[in-house]
Amino acid sequence: MCGLSAGARNGGRRLELELVPRPGARRLLPQVPPHPHVTFCSHSTDFEVHRNWLAITHNLPLSQWYYEATSEWTLDYPPFFAWFEYALSHIAKYFDPKMLVIENLNYTSPATIFFQRFSVIFTDLLFIYAVRECCRCVNGKRAAKDILEKPTFILAVLLMWNFGLLIVDHIHFQYNGFLFGLMLLSVARLCQKRYLEGALLFAVLLHFKHIYVYVAPAYGIYLLRSYCFTASNADGSAKWRSFSFLRITLLGLIVCLVSALSLGPFIVLGQLPQVISRLFPFKRGLCHAYWAPNFWALYSAVDKALTVIGLKYNFLDPTKIPKASMTGGLVQEFQHTVLPSVTPLATLICTFISILPSVFCLWFKPQGPRGFLQCLVLCALSSFMFGWHVHEKAILLAILPLSLLSVQRAKDAGIYLILTTTGHFSLFPLLFTAPELPIKILLMLLFSVYSFSSLKSLYRREKPLLNWLETIYLIHLVPLEIFCEIVFPLTPWKLRFPFVPLLLTSVYCAVGIMYAWLKLYISVLSERTSARQKAE
Amino acid sequence: MEKWSLMTITVLLALTVRWTVSLGSYSGAGKPPMYGDYEAQRHWQEVTYNLPIRQWYFNTSDNNLLYWGLDYPPLTAYHSFLCAYVAKLINPDWIALHTSRGYESQSHKLFMRTTVFVADLLIYIPAVILYCCSLKETSTKKKVSSALCILLYPGLILIDHGHFQYNSVSLGFALWGVLCLSYDWDLLGSAAFCLALNYKQMELYHSLPFFCYLLGKCFKKGLKGKGLLLLIKLAGTVVASFAVCWLPFCTDVEQIMQVLRRLFPIDRGLFEDKVANIWCSLSVLIKIKNVVSPQTQLKLSFAVTFLSLLPTCIKLTVQPSLRGFKLTLVSCALSFFLFSFQVHEKSILLVSVPVCLIINEVPFMATWFLLVSTFSMLPLLLKDGLLLPYAVTTLAFLSACVASFAIFEKTSAKDLQLKPFSQSLRGYVSWFKLFPKIVRSLFLLSVTLMGVLSVMSAAVHPPQRFPDLFPVSVSSISCLHFLFFLVYFNVIILWDSKNSRNQKKVS
Question: A cellular component term (GO) from this record (chain A) (predicted)?
Answer without folding.
Answer: endoplasmic reticulum membrane
